[in-house]
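Please check what follows.
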Amino acid sequence: MDATNAVPAFGGRRKTPVYYTNVSNIVRILKGKAPLSIIAQHLNSQGITTPTGLPFNRDRLIRYIKSNTI
């Protein structure tokens, strides 16, 4: 298993810091202007998935926002 497919240490991040910066910036810009379900649809339309590789939905976006203190 190479480093790009390695399982992170317990509690570790699954994506690169650039991923978290980009997704967090998108969420910050849209958070006060659109419902969370629309933000999730926007992320999905851009091909952006959750850190675990699942498509975003309202509940997953809420968890992302809470875990990244947005």
Observations:
- The helical segments are 17-31, 36-45, 58-67.
